[in-house]
Amino acid sequence: MWHSGLLKEILNNYYQAIELYEDKKKIIEHSIAANEVWLKALEKEPTKQQELAEYYFTLFEKKNLTKVSEHIALSMLNKKNCQLTNKQTNLFEQYRKLGIGKTAPNINFNQKNQGDLKDLKNLKNAYKLVVFGASWCPNCQTDYPSLIGKYKRLKKIHDLEVVYISIDTDKNTFEAYYKEAPFITFCDTKG
User: Fold this and answer.
1) Is 187 exposed, middle or buried (0-12, 13-18, 19+ CB in 10 A)?
2) How much is the pLDDT for 156?
3) 102-114: per-residue pLDDT in tens?
4) 30-87 pLDDT, tens digit each
5) Residue 59: how many CB atoms within 10 A of its CB?
6) Any residues with CB less than 8 A from the CB of 32 and at least 6 apart, and which?
7) What is each CA distance from 164 to 103, 150, 171, in whole angstroms?
8) Residue 185 per-residue DSSP state
9) 70/95 Cα distance (integer angstroms)
10) Would strands 160-166 and 127-133 be described as parallel, antiparallel, or unpaired?
11) Is the pLDDT of residue 11 over 70?
12) 93 and 122: one domain?
């Protein structure tokens, strides 16, 4: 099944069937249960397990099923027999370091258009909201305009500054999409 590509096809079809539920909580619950099955089945084949983990982690992120991606990430990071690549480690570590509700690490802004602002810690606002998104993300395309609409009120009432970090990989796309942003935007074009 592995060499024929049948395993991914079966899993993809299964996950698509799960998405037919209208209740997002059920989709998350059943997807995590499915993850547990293939994670356990491939325990003795860590290379294959890591390949599937990276593939499905990315797939679920694109579908905005972050709880399912987080499950895969933390499962892989907690395995003792894994030899994760640097790319995989960095990909999965974002959920341990930058998960919702966590304190953001200091983020260095190395872009010319940020003026005197060198990093996240230099912001003097009482509150900082760090948002990660991308111009190609369907949910971000909805959330980004909404955030723009709420920004002035939040800044005035709560002394909140928004730092929008894009995971776009094309500089021109990033600059075109976020040119009207009233808050700080940043993109290192590394995804």
Assistant:
1) buried
2) 92
3) 677 777 776 555 5
4) 999 999 999 999 888 888 888 899 999 988 988 888 889 989 998 988 887 668 888 8
5) 17
6) 67, 68, 71
7) 15, 14, 15
8) E
9) 6
10) parallel
11) yes
12) no
38 in Cβ contact with 5 (< 8 Å): no
The label of the residue with tokens 């895969």 reads: 72
* Domain with 15 in it: 6-97
CA 186 to chain centre: 15
Angle between helices 6-18 and 46-62 (to 10 degrees): 40
Residues 129, 90 share a domain? no
Question: Is there a domain that residue 51 lies in?
Answer: yes
Both tokens of residue 8? Answer: 């991914």
| pTM score over 0.70 | no
From 150, 135, 126, select the one nearest 185 (Cα to Cα): 135
> Left if phi > 0, otherwise alpha if psi is -120 to 50, otherwise beta: which for 79?
beta
Residue 132 host element (H or E): strand 127-133
